Amino acid sequence: MRKFCFAIAATLVVLGSAEPVPAAGSTQVANAERPEHLVPASSAHVASRLAPQMPSDTALARLASTRLRTQTAAAASTAAASVAAPFLTRPYIGYHVITSVFDHCNPDYTTDGSVCRFDGTVGLRGYGVDPSFSRGYAQTPGGGDYLYYDGHNGWDYGLSYENVRAAGDGVVSLAGADSINPCFGQTIIVNHPNGFSTRYAHLSSIYVGAGQSVSRGQVIAGSGNTGCSSGPHLHFGVYVTSSWTAIDPWGWWGAAGGDPWSADSGNLWLTGSGQYPIPWAPTGVTATPADSAAVVSWTTPGFDGGTPIASYTVTASPGGATISAPGTQTSAVMTGLTNGSQYTFTVTAIDAIGSGPASSASASVTPNGVPAPPTNVVGIPGAGSARVSWTPSFAGASPITGYTVTGSPGNLSVDAGLATSLDFPGLTNGTTYRFMVTAKNAVGTSSPSQPSNSVTPFTASSWQPLTGVLSSSPAVVSTASGRLDVFIRGSDQRLWHRSFDSGGWTSWESLGGVLDSDPTAAAPGSGRIDVFVRGTDKQLWHLPFDGTTWGNWEPLGGVLGSGPAVSSWGNGRMDIFVRGTDGAVWHRAYDGGWGVWDRLGGVVTADPAAVSWGPGRLDVVIRGSDSALWHKAWTGSHWTNWESLGGVLPAGSGPGIASWGPGRLDVFVRSTNDNLWHDWFDGTSWSGLKRDDPNPFSADPAVVSWGQGRIDVFVRGTDSGLWHKSYD
Fold first, then answer.
1. Residue 170 phi, psi (nearest 5)
2. pLDDT over 70 percentage in the chain
3. CA-CA distance, 168 to 353, in Å (whole number)?
4. Residue 331: helix, strand or coil by DSSP?
5. How far is the C-alpha of 245 from the C-alpha of 247, rounded, in Å?
6. Residue 403 in contact with residue 388, Cβ under 8 Å?
């Protein structure tokens, strides 16, 4: 609010569309604003004579390295205000002179002979007063290093009739003359949803009205020279809305507990240092040559401007050719280049406000006729293997004739032919691998792709006997990481249960009932377990556990042609699948109440199995009439068609299925020679059934996952006892 005039012109930076149209009149809605006792300053000074008002970049970096320690100590102080989450960006774009700071020593326009900056620097009237401005004080005795100004409750920026931008999302509460604090002249106040408000004062033009929602970086006004000001500039202030207390958006960077203004709420700038509302430059730009083309890749900027990156622009040099890529991508193919010529590339990120600075140039590359390297290489662990998939890229001067996948450590290579995925064999369980893929054509071989994610093949345990005498296949459920609950039909046809946690395995306990099928179980809530069986009356029966005690058996009706399967995708949600008397799969859901049975078709010749990898997703697997494994899924909106996964399952033997994460399915079956076979889905394709363990067993496997990469398998052994192994 200090009166001053400018002898230098600030840089004009305009991004976006046409010039905004000023809003008519003055508008205001009710808010907590109160008088701030602003009075005109007694004299003005020339901007060209200003001492630097901010710490140097070196000093800021040094302060930033200790700021976390300072904030931690301040938070421990009972006198310290709570620290709010950062949310502000600068209200302009492009470098501008700072002409006045927030005075932490009484920022209420009370003259107390000192100016205290956020980093602990102090200007004292006793050290000397700026002859051209009575409230600017020297930082050193007799020095010309003046700080401005005593009592100031905001920051002044040297914007000379330029665009002013909203520092964050919010709703305008004042647009026009400020009747409560008229010295601010034409003013905008924006109330933000987190309990703070920002003020933009001394404006020449206003482009918004009270009650209007504004977004970060939106042009809301033109800076000016209205109110108690004798030179064009922008006064920017931040307030706690409820009390209308002025605070410094920089917080306090000085000595811990030393902030003279206890109302400060911490550093409110995104990234901790005031940034423009446009993205930083992308980093790590690389280029790989292809036929008359190059594949350009980059790393997303460390700061997106406070709004999502909408797109990237890739620019080639020489020539200046450009291509655009969506903001979700970090690579693009630049075509139309000349083979044999060298090129470098820069990348610019663009958000809703405008373009950020260009990146550093890539190393030079020379396009030629070989393919571009494949992209999106992904590895999914298996037992002693990994499923590796990739996306073809630019083919080059002739069609691609094959791919080669290389795994490290070990520099192991497998030719994939023209496939875009394969099962990479011969890996050591427990060892971490990464994979790269090359493509070849008649001209030559591409550069290697970017490495895949890290992949660690499962470490499989040996089989562990868990005793018991089973007259059915087991069922298993997990209610928490490291917790397993196993259910069997005993030799007395009753339900038996034992569990595993950090204390080891409990003893078997009888839960009663008279079972006519394998049991199945789900965990639809914290600590809750629901067990379902087919009773001797062929009905569906249910036994609940509430986390403390078991309930009573209850009949749920129906006429079942097999044992049931159950899955849960969320708290209180359960989905039951059975074989009906017509041989088809039938489904019934519970979501606060039981729905009706609906027919899903198919021809089922053994108990089905089901799992969910997340809300709204269900996967069902069955043994079909051709003895093969079949699969069907609910996507959240519809059921897919049945698909065959191949294999030959023995008569009456159903599959088991588990999921340890979105997009991941693991199916285990008993083969015709009673071995354990395994098929998995990686979100893109199925691996195909492969023998996983040569030890024989005598009933359907039961499988469950309690966490990422963890699978537990339970079977009835040839001795009729329960056996267990795990993959981790």
1. 175, -170
2. 89
3. 12
4. strand
5. 6
6. no
DSSP-derived secondary structure letter, 272: G
Q: Minimal CA–CA distance to 388: which of 323, 452, 438?
A: 452
Q: Which residues pair with 653 in a beta bridge?
A: none
**Tally of residues, the chain:** 728
Instruction: Give the single-character DSSP code of 142.
Output: T
Backbone angles phi, psi at 376, to 5 degrees: 50, 50
Indicate the residue type of 215.
S
**Alpha carbon 341 to chain centroid distance?**
40
Q: Are the C-beta atoms of 409 and 393 separated by less than 8 Å?
A: no
Taking Cα atoms as reference points, which of 588, 595, 522, 519 lies closest to residue 559? 588
Other CB atoms within 10 A of residue 325 CB: 17
Q: Give the torsion sign (CA, 173, 179, 180, 182).
A: positive
CB neighbourhood size of 56 (10 A): 9
The strand pairing partners of 727, in sequence order, are 460, 711
The shares of helix, strand and coil residues in the chain, as percent rounded to the nearest 5, are 5, 40, 55
Cis peptide before 318 (omega within 30 of 0): yes
Dihedral pair phi/psi, residue 108, rounded to 5° = -130, 25
- Edge-to-edge strand ranges of the sheet holding 528-534: 520-525, 528-534, 540-545, 554-555
Res. 62: pLDDT tops 80: no
Q: Name the token pair of 515.
A: 């079972």
Residue with the two structure tokens 């079909």: 624
State the number of CA atoms in the 13 A half-sphere of 728 facing the CB: 9
C-alpha–C-alpha distance, residues 152 and 117, integer Å: 11
Q: Is a pLDDT exceeding 50 seen at residue 4?
A: no
SS3 71: helix
- Report which residue type is found at 285: V
SS3 of residue 155 by DSSP:
strand
Single pTM value for the model: 0.59
Interatomic CA distance for residues 69 and 638, integer angstroms: 53
pLDDT of residue 537: 95
Task: Give Cβ neighbours of residue 626 (< 8 Å, ≥ 6 apart).
Answer: 644
Taken in order of first residue, the domains within the chain and their CATH numbers are 84-102+153-272 (2.70.70.10), 283-350 (2.60.40.10), 375-440 (2.60.40.10), 464-727 (2.120.10.70)
Tokens describing residue 553: 């058996």
H runs (alpha helix) in 77-181: none
Q: Could you give the CA distance from residue 63 to residue 98 in angstroms, rounded to a whole number?
A: 19
CA-based max dimension of the chain: 102
pLDDT digits (tens, 9 = 90+) for 468-522: 999 999 999 999 999 999 999 999 999 999 999 988 999 999 999 999 999 999 9
Token pair 């395994």: residue:
678
Give the dihedral sign, CA 475/610/651/543.
Answer: positive
Q: What is the rounded average pLDDT for all residues in the chain? A: 88
pLDDT at 684: 79
* Beta-strand pair 213-214/203-206: unpaired
Calpha distance 628→689 (Å, rounded): 11
- Residue 546 pLDDT greater than 70, yes or no: yes
Q: Is the pLDDT of residue 79 over 50?
A: no
Q: Is 374 within 8 Å of 390 (Cβ atoms)?
A: yes
- Residues 443, 368: Cα–Cα separation, whole Å: 9
Query: What CA–CA distance (Å, rounded) separates 42 from 2?
Result: 9
Residue 410 has a CB neighbour count (10 Å cut-off) of 12
At 227, the amino acid letter reads G
**DSSP tag of 586:** E
Spatial distance between the Cα atoms of 600 and 612, rounded to a whole number of angstroms: 17
- The pLDDT of residue 261 is 93
Identify the three-state secondary structure at position 648. Answer: coil
